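Build the 3D complex.
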Amino acid sequence: MFLGFVTAGGVVLLVLIFLILAVLIAQSEPAFRAFGLEFLVGTRWDVTRQVYGVIPFVAGTLITSGIALLLGLPLALGAAIFLTTQAPVAFRGPLGTVIDLLAAIPSVVYGFWGLLVLAPFMRTTADPALQRYLGWTGAFGGTATGTGVLTAGVVLAIMVIPTISAISRETLAAVPASQREAALSLGATSWETTRVASLPYARAGIFGATVLGLGRALGETMAVTMTIGNHDAVPTSLFSQGQSIASLIANELVNNTGPLQYSAIIEAGLILLMISLLVNVGARLLLWRVTGSVGSEAPR
Amino acid sequence: MSSTGATSPSSETIERKRSRAPLYAVVAIVVVIVIVVAGFYAGWFKSASSASSGNCAPPTGVTIIGAGSTLVYPLMFQWETVFGGGTTVNYASVGSSAGITDISAKTVDFGASDAPLNPAQRATAAGVLTIPESAGGVVPIYNLPGVGTLNFNGTVLADIYLGTISYWNSPALAALNPDASLPDQPIQVVYRSDGSGTTFIWTSYLSLEDATFASQIGKGTQVDWPVGSGEPKNAGVAGYVQETPYTIGYVDLNYALNGGIQFGRVENPQGNFILASVNNTASALRDANPTLPAGNGDWYNVSVLNAPGLYDYPITSLTYILVYQDLSGAYGSSFSLNQAKALVDFLYWMVTTGQTYSAELYYVPLPPSVVANSEASIGSITFNGATVPNSCGSSV
Amino acid sequence: MMARHLRRKLWSHALTALMGLCVIVVLIPFASIVYEAASIGGPVLSPTLFTAGLPAPCSPVNGVVCPVGGIGPALQGTLILIGLAALISVPIGLAAAIVASEYRGRFLGLAISFVADVLTGLPSIIAGVFIYAYFVIYYPSIVYSTITGALALSVIMIPIVTRTTEVALRTVPQELREAALALGIPKWRTTLQIVVATALPAILTGILLAVMRASGEAAPLLFTAFGSRLGFTGLTNPIEALPLMIYNFAESGWHNWIQLAWAGALVLILLILVTSLLSRWTIQRMVRRMRGG
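Done.
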């Protein structure tokens, strides 16, 4: 009886993932039938001519997540190392807690802040500076309007920092004291100790944390929708407006112009699901391997 | 939490000393929920409203769900707040295309759209009535610090949205505005990111005015814009333009006026530059005097753009309610007679008494000829084969 | 030699300073968010904010005085949705975790651990898409309802409850189970009365985590809960939620709605921070107790 009940609960969980896949696959069928593999390589999302390709949104998703990691990883790691090895002991706990709490702020609040505070700041201050000093790279062309892939990426960076930082801190703290002491006793400076003793030891954990952060960035909807500019085209510069798969869904799933567009959006959702499942499974297998447990995740 | 296999303390210690804090938290949460539910029944959370349904007597305890047009939302908000008599109306402002999708999928009781159903949509949503419930003007809003009211015409607006005019001080704009000091700044085009009836009105007008626009982009609720950034809903475009210098966007007149956003004059076919107002959109609607099809007919080509009056505002449009003619046939047993009565009462009230709320919110009250068409459509709604009478007495 | 040492020392100090700077940079957005929420939303904080209905959209143009209104329906909706979602997800999550932890030799147990792991990484909007796509075909009349909203949130909560409960159950010493079984207590009683009871604080903390996560989600509710200025009017009717209201009001451009959105954000942040701190404090106490016995 009891075994039956708990088994039923377990079965519900297992059925859930199959049901999700089944529903998405069934409803993306019309789009798949219409476009086949063209959908995966199509660079146009043309509602007027009913031609749909997913590349603009895959690009938007990957670029924003890439920016998030590029900006977020060094900051998160720097903060994690500082808080585990350098900061005065009395500060470590409270500051760590505050950074972890950043993960608990709802994404819609980040989006709101991104739209009303960060976007104007980017437009008036950060973007012109980037254009002046890094314009030669070609990545900062066009007009900066505040919203766009760069702004969305910055918001995502802010959102993944707590995730990466929390798990990195945990793995860094798990480095045996003897490792560091050995390095210190050889006359290494505190940075050298971190570099030769702590980082190699925690490398895999940090990598896993990064991929987990990436997973969070890939699937984030509200914050991206509110800051990315919602333009159905492949971004040509970091100031370009774009659209991630998640923001596409938020904007157009119900607000579509016909069944084919709806089906194409569901297919895009299926692709997002695949990407993020792949990333998450990878990260977790890695963390599993390294720590023997999945590690207590930061609350979010 | 890596338990390093350290010897664990005896189970009893854990048992007895386990913290009760989470228990307290759960208890606290339950208490809060109970208070909230109690509060709900005690009448908190109600929007401040003086419930009076005029002369209608809709059934009590019924909720009508609608979704769609953001253009009509402020007026709809007023309507659903004022309409009472025990029937509650719940309208979500999600965009005209969503209104069409929702009524086709039968997830709502009525949809609202500023764009009529196109032939494909009519095929999907068979048996849906198109009922004009209000009208408005779409205006070009912009954010140019220190610049006054600008003149536009259809070609210039089309070129801006095509990207061929990309600077505020371009010769074409300067020619229309010889006295304005136009800044040497790129124009940041803002459009609707969601399927939108406002976009339909805007692109219909630009297609009418500019052949290149018509062939390259065409009219639709969502089109393939060559330039610009998308914002959701009328409110999203309005808010973004208001916040961001050198932008141009398009919203319904009421969003511009209620939000205090600067908008430009548009040249009408008679060569006059008209600053939109309730009066000149109302006169446009009267002068256009469109021939309206029956509720279940094809409305796709109904247009009141470029009305013939000397001082009519050119970008004017009706906005529509979409509702099934045969309610029991469409929804089956999940739809009750009371719901049908409430829906018909609300629709009838909307096109009659409801029109008196239009002007103060900068919408255009429907002219009598249009109201007559709407009333006839509402009168043709059936439930289990019989027409559903409204309880509103004679028309107002 | 000395110079080299000095250089290394300086390098180390510089990097340390840089990493300290990282901490500060990381905290700037947090400070900014709290500042904005408090300075714009703070002034409308009052008891009526929590009970009053959503106001008509309004901007103070031409001397218009806008109604302030409140977030009553949104707060009520969030609590109801979360309550229902917990009612659905907690039993399922607990049951799945018990299978995974107590009967882990079986294939089912392994599969559950893995699937729960995978599902915690599910993009939250996919949960909403899934529920919408399913209901729009089979039950179109309740696509937009409290039920679908709660179900969408459950899809997010179930894997979290399962994961955290499983971890909690695994920390219960094996000897405890063996001792109980040796006394002839049947396995189900051992599981419920000894294993689950011992891990209860950790399990409740896990549930709190799931509740926290779900109460901040707007994406799954876009196509399900739908939003309603009326608050709760029945399980089959649409319902408002705080994050949904923040999203709709934030982009609205109406002055009084943006102000309410900030106020809502402030309330939501406070709500979640308090819950979060509470659960952290509990975990710490628990760990200390278990260590210090």
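Chain A touches chain B at residues 44-49, 116, 119-120, 123, 143, 145-148, 174, 225, 229-232, 241, 243, 251-252, 254-259, 262, 291-293, 296 (CB under 8 Å).
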